[in-house]
What does this fold into?
Amino acid sequence: MSIVLDLGGLGPADLAVGPSALSELMASLHVLAEPEHHPEAAGWAARAAAAGPELHDELSVFAPLWARYRCRLFFPRTLPIAANLDEELSAIAALPAEDFLELVAPGVLGTNALPVPPARELRAGAAAAEDFVRRCLRRSYARGELARQLVAAPLELRDRLLAVLQAADTAFFAEDWSTLRPALEDHAREVRRRLAVLPLGAPPAEVPQPPAGGAPRGTSAPGTPISLRSPADVLTELLPTAARVGPGERVRLDKLQIDEVKVAPRPLVLVPSARVWPHLTVKNEHPSCVVVQYAARGTTPAGQLTLRDLHHRLMALTSPARMELCRHLLGEPITTSELAARLGSSEPQVSRALRTLRDAGLVRSTRDGKLVRHRLATDVIQRLGHDVLSTVAR
It folds into this structure.
């Protein structure tokens, strides 16, 4: 399963890259709400929870908004990206009731599988609103109660949410953000550099003279250097589980969803995060832009797997013969011939089993003179449980 982003028609000028304090706060609140999904952040989550114990009940009320289906309210909607959290919260405070409903109602329902009525129909007492509340309630009591409050008094719920976000900022996020923000800004500058400059040693390229009526979308003025890296190239460099697919500027993102998103003529906004891992979030529903929130380099454990990699590792361990071979490889490095003698198998049979395990990253082979010795990659086996969780959680 995957989401395919069609980036055809986008130029470097159509990509915005930068951290968002509000998106990072949402990712942090998700970790607090579901710490069992984020064992790598257990220490931070414990400290943050201890810093604001009085927030627990209110954060629980709004937790559906930062569950697996992230509410669109917490992502950039205008460019340039706001400079700080105060600006982003002020923009929420200025939202009219209907706009707030449009952004929040899908997050309360928490799924793309069920339609959400237009915001103008979500009025207290309206049949569409009552049906929306019932559908949210069928998903969970917390979602149903939040839907009821949203329909009854959207602006009151907006102000209550803002108060909770401001309290979380005071309790733990402001200090955390002061530490995280510089590295995320450095990362964003590096991404912009990749989009704006030629690869090292490449000859300078010139933008052709634009046709009458002005420069084409995504190009610079005539005679200025242009990038030889397309947005699709840069996106696949950024995301370990992304890959170019098919003709054109199409990128497949490893997600538990099936969708194809044509980005242009909207811009693509890339929001690096230090707390979002292992998730990768794509928000396509707003007409202003398409947003991808992803884990910045240096904030994730090494060796992030694709679903295919995970499948290969699990399948490699399903064979009783290969599992028995792994048990022999655990203690010490062993040659193929010695393994064959221990197992009572032929060397070609053992070689095939070793190749399967090695291709899956579960066995390492090293040359010792004329001999090749094999040993189980115990660090990979130990990580496999966490790899399963983090790969599924994307």
Observations:
- The chain has 14 helices and eleven strands.
- The two ends are 11 Å apart (CA to CA).
- The longest strand covers residues 268-273.
